[in-house]
């Protein structure tokens, strides 16, 4: 009985498509705030490189996959290695560098530094909401849709969105770095908040203090659930911001699912479960994977808090585990392929 | 036994997604060559309006659905009415007017008048081929993918592509008009051919004499079949050009399916089955629907050869029939809705 229930739950959230929403925010250019790229400037290339590599097996815009300044590889590696057979759909919510692979365009724009002025124009936000919802509706007809993200600086804009909407998210979002630069992120958000009078409505919070990606994730999830599908947010603490927007825009949290990695759930520098709780997310799943036994330093680093999430890694691992896959073997094989091709950075 | 075989065949080509590939060619601006719009200039709006209406139920860029100069409504009406629950994905191969709904961009460009010079730049054609194929591969993981089109002037560029590749397609493509302007189309293609020395290779034929859409359809079909899916070209005589490109680019015709309407199959001004034969298409399906009993003149006109195909209408009808739907009732109900909203042109 219990086993059957679990099986049914797993079937219910088996992805038909993984939508990967990409975008940039100029917040990622602030030195020290993001390690989703080898340098602050390179963070603007990370979303494009992530999805090029995810779809094609090789990046196109540059000849290297995204790495942290320490050379730890992008979570896209894990997503590709363990869920290669799942259909992927790239969605561009607003990126300074657009990828050289097919992507759905939502008519958005890259996010600006919210300390200096509004992050997004009203028109871009309206486009993202309307078109994301229409896309989600079409995808929802297929059944279960995973929605992942790639946006360097996203844990800072997620905190900003949540705080601007009135949630106490101060210092509770995670980081791709083992050393979460919480004080810097809090200071940046506080500086931005000076321009506005919180709490703001969902769309205002995004336009003033957000970025294109979290709104697009929420809009797609709304559309999926409105057209009979099952939306699954595949990401870490950032998905608390997406879920808050989804809820604030009228979405039913009973229909929403969030799935992430153990590395996020166990991150003591953040508060994933607490954020899910204050937003009211009911269905949370954790992929209990360990890379501690890997022969590669670049993968063992995940156990020390490097990377943690992104590009739907938690969702991909959750799916792969439900299929009984040997995920570490698959990830190591893919990492070997990238190392021998010379596109995987300098740590192994 | 026989019934079961038919059922299995129908299951095999039940669409997971309908991809609607849109684009424009300046050939449609030649007076008299296309009725896929109320005037030659308006033909450039038709693809955008078609897909806006298909996804949202109302056009956005203008407040009217595409109609012929006589006011006969777009085939998108039928596709929406009978296959509304199938997931749609809009793919922009190259359009002068881009739609205000989410669409996948392939990095192509609008087709130019091939009488004056090449129809497409090499870069645009390469993008369309590479990205269409990558998109098709992802979609193919889902199973069966219908690929439809909306490109006014497409029966002329289809003839041009086929002839440029060395097929005898002179005067054998269909038309959305009951009076197929074959002599005009032949004269236009002949004028273009003066610039080149046929036969040309597939990509050369497209760049010199084609348009963005037929190449995108072929590229998506290639990707679908390469990644284990079932590609179904949902369209009329134009799909002979797409199938020829698919074959010329290395695609396996045994894996390719074409489905269209009875109106195309029975069009005496064209030669649908003959074109399929010379290209070598093996799997052809016809949706045997009649609108003769409709109470609306705008729909009875389909029986006199108006419209005939487009926006995957034949595929949508084939799918709806296999589900046992009362298609005429559904189409009339949708037409009534559009008439009462005042967006369906002037014939009823």
Automatic annotation (TrEMBL), chains A, B:
Alphabetical list of Gene3D superfamilies matching this protein: 3.40.50.10210
Transmembrane segments: none
SUPFAM superfamilies: Nicotinate mononucleotide:5,6-dimethylbenzimidazole phosphoribosyltransferase (CobT)
Molecular functions per Gene Ontology: nicotinate-nucleotide-dimethylbenzimidazole phosphoribosyltransferase activity
Family the UniProt entry places it in: Belongs to the UPF0284 family.
Family annotation (PANTHER family): PTHR38811, UPF0284 PROTEIN SLL1500
Entry-linked HAMAP family: UPF0284
Protein name, per record: UPF0284 protein CGL51_06630
Species of origin: Pyrobaculum aerophilum
Organism lineage string: Archaea, Thermoproteota, Thermoprotei, Thermoproteales, Thermoproteaceae
């Amino acid at each position: 009985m219990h086993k059957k229930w679990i099986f049914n739950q797993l079937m219910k959230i088996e992805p038909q498509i993984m939508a990967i929403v990409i975008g940039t925010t100029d917040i990622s250019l602030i030195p020290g705030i993001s390690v989703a790229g080898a340098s602050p400037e390179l963070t603007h290339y990370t979303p494009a490189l992530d999805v090029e590599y995810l779809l094609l097996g090789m990046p196109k815009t540059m000849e290297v996959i995204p790495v942290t300044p320490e050379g730890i590889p992008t979570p896209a590696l894990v997503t590709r290695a363990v869920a290669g057979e799942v259909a992927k759909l790239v969605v561009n919510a607003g990126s300074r560098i657009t990828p050289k692979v097919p992507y759905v365009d939502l008519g958005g724009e890259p996010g600006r530094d919210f300390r200096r002025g509004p992050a997004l124009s009203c028109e871009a936000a309206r486009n993202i909401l309307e078109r994301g919802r229409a896309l989600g509706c079409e995808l929802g007809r297929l059944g279960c849709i995973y929605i992942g993200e790639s946006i360097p600086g996203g844990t800072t804009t997620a905190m900003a969105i949540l705080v601007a909407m009135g949630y106490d998210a101060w210092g509770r979002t995670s980081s791709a770095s083992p050393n979460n630069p919480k004080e810097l992120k809090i200071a940046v958000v506080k500086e931005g908040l000076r321009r506005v009078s919180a709490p703001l409505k969902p769309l205002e919070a995004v336009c003033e203090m957000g970025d294109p990606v979290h709104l697009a994730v929420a809009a797609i999830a709304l559309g999926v659930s409105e057209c009979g599908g099952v939306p699954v947010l595949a990401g870490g603490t950032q998905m608390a911001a997406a879920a808050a927007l989804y809820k604030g825009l009228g979405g039913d949290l009973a229909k929403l699912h969030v799935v992430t990695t153990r590395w996020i759930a166990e991150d003591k520098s953040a508060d994933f479960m607490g954020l899910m709780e204050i937003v009211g997310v009911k269905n949370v799943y954790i992929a209990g994977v360990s890379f501690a036994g890997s022969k590669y330093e670049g993968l063992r680093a995940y156990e020390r808090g490097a990377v943690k999430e992104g590009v739907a890694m938690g969702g991909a691992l959750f799916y792969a585990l439900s299929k009984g896959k040997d995920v570490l073997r698959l990830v190591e094989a893919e990492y070997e392929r990238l190392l021998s091709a010379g596109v995987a950075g300098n740590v192994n």
